[in-house]
Design brief:
Oligomer: single chain
Distance between the termini: 96 Å
Structural class: mainly alpha
Organism: Nocardioides turkmenicus
Number of helices: 14
GO molecular function: DNA binding; DNA-binding transcription factor activity
Order of helices and strands: HHHHHHHHHHHHHEEH
Number of domains: 3
Keywords: DNA-binding, Repressor, Transcription, Transcription regulation
Mean pLDDT: 87
Low-confidence stretches: none
Strand order of the largest sheet: 1-2
Protein name: MerR family transcriptional regulator
InterPro entries: DNA-bd_dom_put_sf, MerR-type_HTH_dom, MerR_fam
Radius of gyration: 33 Å
């Protein structure tokens, strides 16, 4: 007959684990002998080894007792179900690892991969983190409100980054963050923005206004308010752009097209 310590040693578990299995009803707890100790036989060792093997394989303790008592067919069926659950958990954990990996720059916390890739492209082009932070915050709002449209929005923005004049405007916008309201240099930036909008083809303009790249007015207004809050000269710039025939910021529109 074996003491609890000897039982644990034979089965390759701790004494604490044996007591835990007793508490869960997985391992029969023998009566105490005349000295007050519990004594275990060889059958207890076999049962404990089976419990350990099942637990180490990922079988929930709530199902161990069922499997120990199951016949061959029921055992195979139960193991198949457990294997299916474990494979699902593995896929979920892999997904979690991929999400964690995207958090290196903090961009992936609330953004889909295509938006993170877009922000990385901005970094590669030398656009400053001050501008990228504003872009990221804006995309977080868009992703939360229009997740089904993110692919189209990002596709459009990625295409814009192929235009050197757009990249240059981003760099000038960074300098603009430190300007005071009324700065005369805003006139030049307004001219550049309007020139870029005037260069948009009729086909692309239709997609921008009414197609899958069109942003709801309410969301555009929210993003415009963020721009105004973050950039001291934003209102001045938007007024200058409006004088040149466009209104808004996030969703610039020709004034005559709205009338």
């Amino acid at each position: 007959m074996l003491t609890i310590s000897q039982l644990a040693s034979y089965a390759g578990v701790t004494v604490r684990a044996v007591r835990h299995y007793h508490a869960k009803g997985l391992l029969v707890e023998p009566e105490r002998d005349h000295s007050g100790y519990r004594r275990y036989d060889a059958a207890a060792v076999v049962d404990l080894i089976k419990i350990r093997i099942l637990a180490d394989a990922g079988v929930p303790l709530s199902r161990v007792k069922e499997l120990l008592a199951a016949g061959d067919d029921d055992f195979k069926k139960a193991v198949a179900e457990i294997d299916k659950r474990l494979r699902l958990e593995i896929r979920e954990r892999q997904s979690h690892r991929e999400r964690i990996a995207r958090l290196v720059h903090g961009d992936g916390l609330a953004l889909p991969p295509e938006a993170v890739a877009y922000l990385e492209r901005m970094r590669e082009l030398g656009i400053s983190e001050r501008i990228i932070r504003g872009e990221r915050d804006a995309w977080i709002l868009v992703a939360a409100q229009q997740p089904q449209s993110m692919d189209a929005f990002i596709r459009n923005k990625v295409g814009q980054l192929d235009d050197p004049s757009v990249v240059e405007t981003y760099r000038e916008l960074e300098a603009m963050l430190d300007w005071e309201p009324g700065d005369p240099r805003l006139e030049t930036i307004a001219d550049q923005i309007v020139a870029q909008m005037d260069a948009v083809s009729d086909e692309d303009w239709a997609a921008y206004v009414d197609g899958d790249q069109a942003m709801p007015d309410e969301l555009a207004a929210l993003l415009d308010s963020m721009f105004v809050e973050q950039v001291p000269v934003a209102r001045d710039l938007m007024r200058l752009v409006e004088k040149r025939g466009y209104t808004g910021w996030t969703k610039l529109e020709r004034i005559e097209a709205r009338g």
